[in-house]
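Subject: ROK family protein structure
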Amino acid sequence: MPHTTPAPVPLDSASVRRRNLALVLQHIAAHGPCSRSRIAAAVGLVPASVTGLVADLAARGLVQEEAGGTGGGRGRPGRPVRLAPRRVLAVTVQITLEQLRTQVTDLAGAVMSRADTPHRVRHGGPAPLARAVAAVVREAEDRVRCVPGALLSRVVVAMAGPVTSDASHAVLAATDFGWTAPVDLGALVTAELPFLGCPLEVVNDANAAALAEYQALAADRPRPPLGLAYLKADTGVGGGLVVGGRIVDGSHGAAIEPGHLPVALDGPPCACGARGCLAVYAGPEPLLAAAGLAAALRTDGKDAALAALDRALHAGDPAALAALAAAGEAVGAAILGMVALLDVEEIVLGGYLADWHRWLAPAIDARLAGRRALAAPWMPRLTPSTLGTGATLHGAAALARAAVLDDPGAIPPLSP
């Protein structure tokens, strides 16, 4: 996968040029506007080569010159080059149990439009969900066509459940939708969009969110975390791992699934076939049941029931507080397992683990206290999410953006 495997060293001249195009565009995206001479110095290429590469990128509509020159030297002043972010747009879709969250972003990561659409798809085969996803992608395509000169470069669909690391990006399982065998969701959606004209990729929602949280922390600190693990609960309980700015998803795409990390050997049975998994304590259904809101879940749906639990917590309802305390103890046990296995610098809590951190924190801290006393210098920082519910779409957009920045040669030149 492009976001998990470093690009191979180019060998032939065409591959070298494509790689150099990427180096130049990546520098402009990160540091522009900037002159050609500064680009050449930063990426290690001679100025004449950079001039040709910038001309190539401009012909594809990905960069443009600013009107003013930099001045300060003999001859014609340099003209700074900047990103042209609206040449390529991406559509990202997050699948939750009750709705499809859709976003259109440009090459700079700016959100151009956003829509939330109820899908009303429950347990069963994947075809109805694929049709629902295709419908919101078509609506987003219409919004892309309204932008003059814009090209749809990629569609990224994110959903709960492990996604294979190979080219198929198949969903290995999605227990929230009753999928217990691998599903090639990307192929099903693409079949509904015969005229799409761009790649469509399916990713794990927590992996995308982990990448977004990593990038947010990296942008806000002098040094990015060496490694970041993400643990979230919303539609279900999931997680992701980012090391060196890249998602680590394991041999088959199923790495870092903390929802199925056993925290009690004699605990309740889990849908995965094991017992005592974190999901059976901190997942939305058991948490709502423990808080006395199982009936609200059945009649009003998960989002409405979680909103009722939020109100109960703020009102100091004893059942709600007890449910969060028990969930916090299970989350603390899972964090201990993640610490021992991963040795990351930071663990970010997302979803309602972040929203309700004030009620979860005492039980989590109690679980971690003994380990902190023995190994304080190596214990990770525990941080509530800074991106909230938008983390998954932010991360999916970052993956789409990276695909263009890594291979701008795939973008066709502008029409004459």
